[in-house]
Amino acid sequence: MTQKAKTFHKPSQYDLNSSNIARFIDYLEQHLGREFPNYDSLHNFSVEEMEEFWVLWWNYFAETSRVTHLSPKLQIKRKQDVLTSRDAERARWLSDSSFRLNYAQLALACANESEAVVQIDEDGKTTSYTKESLAKLVGRVANQLKQVGLSKGDVVCGYLTNSVASLVGLLATASIGAIWSSCSPEFGTRAVLDRFAQLSPKFLLATTSYRFNGKKFDKEENLKEIIRGLPSLKAVMLTALEDARDAHSLASLAAFERTVLCFEDVINSGDHDMFFEPMEFSDPLWILFSSGTTGLPKGIVQSHGGIVFEHSKVLSLHLDLGPGSRFFWYTTTGWMMWNFLVSGVLTGATVLLYDGSPTYIEVEHTFKVCAQNQVTHLGTSAPYLASCMRSQVDLGKLGLESVKTIGSTGAPLTGDVYHWVYSHLSSDVSLVSASGGTDLCTAFLGSSPLHEIREGEISCAMLGADVAVFDDKGDEVVDQVGELVIRNPMPSMPLYFWNDHDRLRLHEAYFATFEGAWRHGDWAEKRSDGGYIVYGRSDATLNRDGVRMGTADFYAVVEGVAGVKDSLVVDTSGFEKNGRLVLFVVTDARELDSYLKETIRDAIRRELSPRHVPDIIEAIQSVPRTINGKKMEVPIRKAFGATFLRDAVSEGSMANPESIEDLQTVIDRLKLQR
């Protein structure tokens, strides 16, 4: 039995009796004539009787959201129709039923009447959109898509910031049955083409510039290169044009002999009747991309039905979003959290779209934006929270009284961050560490209003997710570290990878290790008290004397040492005859001298174990990271073999490609020393 972690937050009477999940339990008990005394009983029902669970969730959501009038085909008539199989790889959802829906139609039907979306610029300027005004914008852009000849199954790409233009583009695309995919304009040209060129898109909605950290970035030349690389395009629609450059921008791009439109002109045109293409459950909605850090990014295709079912469940039941909620998550359009964020409109919450730097002027800028806009549900990344902690930000002085939930994802959230948050904020706030991935566009580990929040733990497996931890033999283990798996189908699992309709690459990515179970690629522990700990990517696991360790706790200790700003650790086993544990550190102004190295070793030995102490500690200028801020552990580990670092990474997917040259020099020197 593992020692129980410190509890920081307990459910209130409102959480237990009046939250969305509490009301759903009342609904189930009335319909099924049986009791669900706690979350575990509800979760067991959701995975053991999953067909019944999804029918009842959908019926409840449709009734409470008042969307049943939209179409008789929104009804699921028999629970037998829900799944063809309980095998996670082979299951098909509602494949033989008359069920039809459209993500855009449901999003607009459920959107908050008075304030559906708020766009926030970096300087604090806000623009609000009612449900009606948002629907009009979507209708006008959808009409334009049809006018240039787009129809069901065509691909529309967005090269856009986190803005209303992006949301309108997604909803307009989905409304006509076309397929959406997006990249952030901070992506390099090569990274954009590595993604979009695979899709042969017919339409591109793009920004000509964006602002970040107080600086304007002109993207016109990048756009020209992108358009050259996408010969399938029929038309381009530009936004963020400035008056003085309108004519020049449009004329220069028109030279590519494609229709060139101005987004601002289109959204100010006349209204058009909205038509929503009826979509089967498994018709494609959007294409997300894997990080592409070690090769061409994989296009992950997800469905209208899968996303509506999954996002409505997790946002309503687990995050407790609804009318009156104000939902913010710091993200860009190149990260799955953008897709997750905008689905907040399905719950009737007001969705806030922030376009800018999370640390504009000062590191706590994100928190100040949320305070100014009365955010109730604040989402960010674990590295951002850790950065604020190291900067000794006092959250209690930022006016965050409206915040009920702080969500964290992107990396494991370490125990010291919990202590920091709750040293400044009330225990009424729920600090939720969630784990999932782009692969499913959701979290399958997280929390709910019924759960305590404990130090360093993720509270539970989400409803409908049969999560387990397997050892190397495929046997479930508890209170031991192993591979994180999902043993049942989830609605938002990929239909396929783009250009992989026989699903062979999908099989290799997730199902080749354990028969019938989704291997997620994370190293985790399921605890006997019901919580989970995720230690990091299993292919970046550190193996010392046969004992495997994750990297998250390692970083928490190392980056807590005075003088260390950032760090990255790799185990070179498998790439060197005698594997070494190599720690790279970025220091502040001080030198990485023998005293600082010994201080780091002492901290690791004391707070982790002697096994964790690295063989080598080396200084580097910066830690290579993806555009989404994740440390690039796996490619750097590969560079200790025969692979050059430049061949192991896609520079266009990096936030700091300039870090490669310095790191390669250090690795080359270390390889000579072995």
TrEMBL record:
- The answer to keyword Transport applying to this record is no
Highest taxon above the source species:
Bacteria
Q: Which SUPFAM superfamilies match?
A: Acetyl-CoA synthetase-like
AMP-dependent synthetase/ligase domain location: 113-490
The record, for InterPro entries, names:
Acac_CoA_synth, AMP-bd_C_sf, AMP-binding_CS, AMP-dep_synth/lig_dom, ANL_N_sf
Instruction: List the signal peptide residues.
Output: none
Q: Which UniProt keywords apply?
A: ATP-binding, Ligase, Nucleotide-binding
GO terms for biological process, alphabetical: lipid metabolic process
**One Pfam family of this chain:** AMP-binding
State if Nucleotide-binding is listed as a keyword. yes
One GO MF term attached to the UniProt entry? ATP binding
NCBIfam families xrefs: ac_ac_CoA_syn, PRK03584.1
Protein family membership: Belongs to the ATP-dependent AMP-binding enzyme family.
User: What PANTHER family would the database entry show?
Assistant: ACETOACETYL-COA SYNTHETASE
- Provide the protein name: Acetoacetyl-CoA synthetase
Q: Which organism is it from?
A: Ferrithrix thermotolerans DSM 19514
The uppermost taxa in this organism's lineage are: Bacteria, Bacillati, Actinomycetota, Acidimicrobiia, Acidimicrobiales
